[in-house]
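Risk mitigation, structural track. In case the binding assays with zinc ion fail to produce interpretable data, a predicted complex structure has been prepared as a fallback.
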Amino acid sequence: MTDHTALRIAGDRLWSTLTETAQFGAIPGTPRGMCRLTLSEADVAVRRWLIDAATAIGMTVTIDKLGTIHARRPGSEPGLAPIAIGSHLDTQPTGGRFDGILGVLAGLEVVRTLHDAGITTRHPIEVINWTNEEGARFAPAMVASGVFAGEFTLDYALAQTDRDGITLAAALDQAGFAGAAEPGAHALAAHFELHIEQGPVLEAEGIEIGVVNGVQGIRWYDVVVKGQTCHAGTTPMALRRDALQAAARLAVAVDHIGRSDPGRSLSTIGLFQAYPGSRNTAPGEVRLTVDLRHPEVAGLDLMEVTLRDRMAEVERETGCTIALNPVWYSPPVRFDPGVIDAIAGATQRLGYTHRTMPSGAGHDSVYTARVAPTGMIFIPCENGISHNIAENVTPAQATQGANVLLQAVLDYDRRTA
Ligand SMILES: [Zn+2]
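Fallback model:
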């Protein structure tokens, strides 16, 4: 079999597609800001651009019932499932031009590179633009990859509405992207996703490539602390059951829990409200939220156990009662060892500095990992900023990420049946 390890993508061509497609949804008056909500005029325009670019190099485009675009280049061995390169072209309302977009356009660039070099892979290569990854127009996020993987039903997804009451089904019809293919009806040999890190770690450590080994798990809770409302001037301190003082102890405990496993555990209280909310009344009730994250189930479980232990102590110390109500659980995802190995090997051969890391954010790969061997490649982004009009990467960073993608896909294509 021919050795293609010297093959490289065209970095200037990749960059020019990033620049050219950024016209669809560019926020006027900002250097790089993007607003490309799912199935908006801008999203429809970039989808048409992608379809034209894919068909121009002989790819076959299939649209599924959720509007997800599957652009396929045939392989040499009939019967092999495609190796997918997927991400999303939709953005946040004040997003950037790389989150998701890089992953799809790098997929196109990989196929253009193979096309120019006259290389036919054994597996078909399928570039995928998953519909509504961001969850900005329709909730939940990652809805199309979720249906593909069996997390949500098709009917559930199609019935979701935007803030104007328009269903996803109606938006797909109106945009001309209600395809015929059943989401999830075809197998994938693997799913590769190149993405910006959306965090500060790679940049801070001066590392070029993140080899992503999974996605951290998330537990969300609503917490209600109950004490007794009392007069600020007449109630001796010893006789108080101040819900805010109990909640404050709990807040310190939550912070400690987040620092308990450095580099892995994270904890956040995003909402904290005291009632009745009066200057001269000790609060009888506090409502707060807790967000716990860890890349391992055992780590996440230990964080909850620690939180419950500390809650019991605070109840004893303060005489208040604390109710912890779980509202959401997203289990940690482990990516496929074979795909991770292909990515790590490609990174090493290319001579890029790299580290293994979990993803802090959700991605379509969270769901594809349930039905296909999946892995992700991260590149640094400026100041770790994402979901922001300031989001930025350099052409060199984008090129490095796409070269890892190309070489990892070629390696995976050679090694698997
Ligand atoms: Zn994304």
